[in-house]
Amino acid sequence: MKVRHLVTAATTLCIGTAAFAGPQCTEAPKSSWLTEDVMKQKIATDGYTIDKFKVTSGNCYEIYGKDKEGKKAEVYFNPVDGSVVKAKQG
């Protein structure tokens, strides 16, 4: 009986963790991605200020920074074409 409860608890914990994961941006090989330098330049041209830049487990370029109005922004970009996949501002 105790084992069943542990399995249920572990399954619930894993499902709950997945809900907080970021988006999946691409399945394309990294050789087809824009370089980080090119992407950072595109992001700046689009009006964002970058405080933190990273590659996510979902194959996205993600930034924490500010948008062109100076509001905090967390944005996920498709690394192949630079398009915005998901953005949170405020």
Automatic annotation (TrEMBL):
Secretion signal span: 1-21
Keywords: Signal
Keyword Signal: yes
Domain of life: Bacteria
Ranges for domain PepSY: 6-88
InterPro entries linked to this entry: PepSY
Pfam families referenced in this protein's UniProt entry, alphabetically: PepSY_2
Protein name, entry field: PepSY domain-containing protein
